[in-house]
């Protein structure tokens, strides 16, 4: 169980399971001789990708960032990706019922990020999975998803968001908004034009984050005067293996912007010691990104 406190917030990771992705597609132009040192592939060249959602309990609200792949994939996609659909049972095991969730935020609208936004009821009607929740997603993503390019049209499944927009349950964001006190969104262009990271900041009474067991895991992190910050960076840096600015996915629509956005992110996240949440890392869902002695950008485990 991945859980920690960040100021007054409690953060937990809940997974929708794992799925296979082509290793070449996952690491773009990076040669296999290089990426295979970090991640192993099977005989079909598939690597394992995670589906990590971040649950933030602010003390007032329960906020779920991203909803995995869900259980509505069409058969032609199940052939490639399977359909783990573990999020609800993992939430339940952590004591979270669907009606406990007040707010759902999607970084973008690809099928592996908003799949559990909705589900079919027993009559086959699409309904919100989280019956009390207000949903948020980037407006530009939603506009694009209505007329995607041939290149990534398969990534958009309108049942995950259109019924919510039509019923007024989903608020569309420009980028930069504060959703609840301490939780904001910021656009990072690269993977798509409008993908938004979700940033949680809470200085709290105790400026040092500690584990749920109560033991401090660092005494020198999060200097006093700096709010403690976590960022769900989504597909800008999908796993700890993608930390190098040049290691982008071939799925990225704007690979040169991915590089610039990563630089922009690190310019704050490294000096301010942000906790970075990795959406597709099957083993390390969060870590601190740092520069090592050689100046190389690396992940340090929490
Ligand atoms: Zn993704």
SSE arrangement:
Blueprint: E1 3-6, E2 9-22, H1 23-26, H2 32-35, E3 46-57, E4 62-65, H3 75-81, H4 87-93, E5 103-105, E6 118-120, E7 126-128, E8 134-138, H5 139-146, H6 162-166, E9 170-173, E10 178-180, E11 183-187, E12 196-201, E13 210-211, E14 229-232, H7 255-269, E15 275-277, E16 286-291, E17 297-301
Parallel strand pairs: 4-5, 5-8, 8-9, 14-15
Antiparallel strand pairs: 1-2, 1-13, 2-3, 3-4, 6-7, 10-11, 11-12, 12-14, 15-16, 16-17
* Cα-atom radius of gyration: 18 Å
Helix content: 10-25%
Give the number of helices.
7
**Low-confidence runs of at least 5 consecutive residues:** 207-226
Largest sheet, if any? 8 strands, mixed
Please state roughly what percent of the residues sit in beta strands, choosing from under 5%, 5-15%, 15-25%, 25-35%, 35-45% or over 45%: 25-35%
- Helix-strand makeup class: alpha+beta
**Residue-averaged pLDDT, rounded?**
93
Task: Tell me the total number of β-strands.
Answer: 17
User: Per the principal axes of the C-alpha atoms, what is the gross shape?
Assistant: globular
As laid out across the biggest beta sheet, the strand order is 9-8-5-4-3-2-1-13
Helix and strand element order: EEHHEEHHEEEEHHEEEEEEHEEE
Bound molecules: zinc ion
Cα separation of the termini: 13 Å
């Amino acid at each position: 169980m991945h859980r920690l406190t960040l100021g007054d917030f409690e953060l937990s990771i809940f997974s929708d399971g794992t799925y296979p992705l082509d290793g070449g597609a996952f690491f773009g132009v990076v040669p296999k001789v290089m990426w295979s040192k970090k991640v192993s592939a099977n005989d079909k060249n598939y690597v394992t990708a995670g589906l990590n959602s971040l649950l933030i309990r602010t003390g007032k609200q329960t906020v779920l960032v991203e909803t995995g792949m869900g259980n509505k994939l069409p058969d032609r996609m199940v052939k490639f990706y399977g359909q783990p659909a573990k999020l609800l049972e993992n939430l339940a095991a952590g004591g979270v019922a669907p009606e406990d969730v007040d707010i759902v935020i999607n970084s973008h609208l690809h099928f592996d990020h908003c799949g559990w936004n909705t589900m079919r009821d027993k009559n086959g009607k699409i309904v919100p999975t989280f019956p009390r929740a207000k949903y948020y997603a980037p407006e530009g993503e939603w506009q694009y998803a209505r007329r995607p390019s041939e290149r990534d049209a398969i990534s958009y499944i309108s049942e995950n968001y259109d019924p919510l927009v039509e019923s007024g349950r989903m608020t569309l964001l420009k980028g930069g908004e504060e959703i609840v006190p301490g939780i904001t969104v910021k656009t990072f262009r690269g993977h798509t034009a409008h993908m938004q990271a979700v940033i949680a900041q809470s200085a709290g009474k105790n400026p040092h984050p500690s584990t749920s067991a109560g033991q401090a895991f660092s005494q020198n992190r999060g200097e006093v005067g700096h709010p403690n910050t976590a960022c769900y960076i989504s597909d800008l840096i999908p796993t700890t293996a993608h930390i190098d600015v040049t290691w982008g996915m071939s799925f990225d629509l704007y690979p040169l912007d991915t590089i610039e956005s990563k630089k922009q992110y690190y310019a704050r996240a490294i000096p301010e010691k942000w906790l970075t949440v990795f959406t597709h890392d099957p083993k390390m869902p969060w870590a601190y990104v740092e520069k090592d002695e050689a100046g190389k950008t690396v992940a340090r485990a929490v």
